[in-house]
What does this fold into?
Amino acid sequence: MLDPTIAKLRIKYARAALTEAKVARDPLRQFRSWFDDVVRAELPEANAMALATASPEGIPSVRMVLLKGFDDRGFVFFTNYESRKAGEIERNPRGALLFYWPGIERQVRVEGMLARVTEEESREYFFSRPRESRLGAWASRQSSVLDGREALEAAYERLRREYEGKDIPLPPFWGGYRLSPSSLEFWQRRPNRLHDRIRYRRSRKTWIIERLSP
It folds into this structure.
């Protein structure tokens, strides 16, 4: 049933046009430009992104994760390799990302293939994390059923005592994934719902730039 309160929600959009002539020829350069805009705007959790995966049977799932790096090879995040998302990635490595930045009226969609980063990359990031977060990675068997929060907190406390005064090693079940993009879409709000949508689509070693209807 239509909710009239929700149906009446409206925002007026006034951002300047996003044109094919103005965007970078390389989508990662364009993403860097927009990401820098988000950082300068001091929006909360600029690196938050929705990650969509699916089982081999095509059953989808989505969750928020944090971007921890990007370059010409793709977008990197870290997780427990025994989690639901990791299990789906290992059996069906296609995935999608969505960055939504309402404070600057923009979003970016990314589609591509997912693969584990190297152990060296996982190790480098793991040891850059606060000690408490490293303990948390060991304590949480991500996506598994818990008897209660007390069990999680007890596991954390046991590990805190075990590693007191010691280095906390990289868990063998924890590390990063990189999504290597085959398609990126840059969306910008415009008046009258005539939003700008510019898509980069990989064709062999080049990127095709095309405008999509809003």
Observations:
- DSSP finds six helices and nine strands in the chain.
